[in-house]
Amino acid sequence: MHIVIMGCGRVGSTLAHILEDKGHTVAIIDQSPEAFRRLRSGFKGRRITGFGFDRDVIVEAGIENADAFVAVSSGDNSNIISARVARETFGVDNVVARIYDPRRAEVYQRLGIPTVATVRWTADQILRRLLPEGAEPLWRDPTGAVLLAELDSGHLWVGEKVGELEEHANCRVAFLSRMGEALVPERNTVIQDGDIVHIIARADEVERINAAVAARNEEGS
């Protein structure tokens, strides 16, 4: 694949290195030539100075033959304009834009531009470390409506089947973390001591699910 990245900050340069290591070709755009210092000396991709929404600049980056476009500059407006140009002018289907304002992210998501709302994501990660108990989000879709959460299932669920937990709490288990590895369970998978249960749920359902699990624990105590 050929991927064009706009923004050679920490995220953009890291993506460029990872993608190149995976065998893809990369072109990276930044308005500041100094930004390319973040790229390792052996980076083989193209470095283009300019703006990602400038037609000549992204053509030079190979947008006409690109399989994907990523906008991760420091400006919301620049990211979304560049993403729209890549998709609407050059027909690149696989486009992602980083957006700092989660309210904007929701709007652009509805317009068909996949976004990563960094403020919301960062806040969720901090909250998970400050408040580890209960179902704190591991991932949240840009609209904030659906999330992946770690469920404090309680020791009383050890020995019970995943299907029983799902039925009791009316939720869906996405995967289990067991001994440091991820496991996609069947309904008859038995929860073991030390398992971390991850659920996928609507955000407005998390409180109810936690309450259902707590009620089960109280019933068995």
Protein described:
Pfam families: TrkA_C, TrkA_N. The chain is of the alpha/beta class and 221 residues long. The chain has 7 helices and 11 strands. The protein has helices at residues 10-21, 55-60, 76-89, 102-110, 118-130, 162-169, 206-220; strands spanning 2-6, 25-30, 46-49, 68-71, 94-99, 115-117, 136-140, 146-151, 172-178, 181-183, 196-202. A 6-stranded parallel beta sheet has the order 3-2-1-4-5-6, with helices on both faces. The relative contact order is 0.10.
Layout of helices and strands:
Layout: E1 2-6, H1 10-21, E2 25-30, E3 46-49, H2 55-60, E4 68-71, H3 76-89, E5 94-99, H4 102-110, E6 115-117, H5 118-130, E7 136-140, E8 146-151, H6 162-169, E9 172-178, E10 181-183, E11 196-202, H7 206-220
Parallel strand pairs: 1-2, 1-4, 2-3, 4-5, 5-6
Antiparallel strand pairs: 7-8, 8-11, 9-10, 9-11
What keywords describe this structure?
single chain, six-stranded parallel sheet, 7 helices, 221 residues, alpha/beta
Quick overview of this protein structure:
The chain contains seven helices and eleven strands. With 221 residues, the protein is of the alpha/beta class.
SSE topology string:
EHEEHEHEHEHEEHEEEH
Question: So what's the overall shape?
Answer: elongated
Strand content: 25-35%
Query: What is the tally of beta strands?
Result: 11
Spatial arrangement of strands, main beta sheet: 3-2-1-4-5-6
Mean pLDDT: 84
Radius of gyration: 22 Å
Helical proportion, percent range: 25-40%
**Structural class by helix and strand composition:** alpha/beta
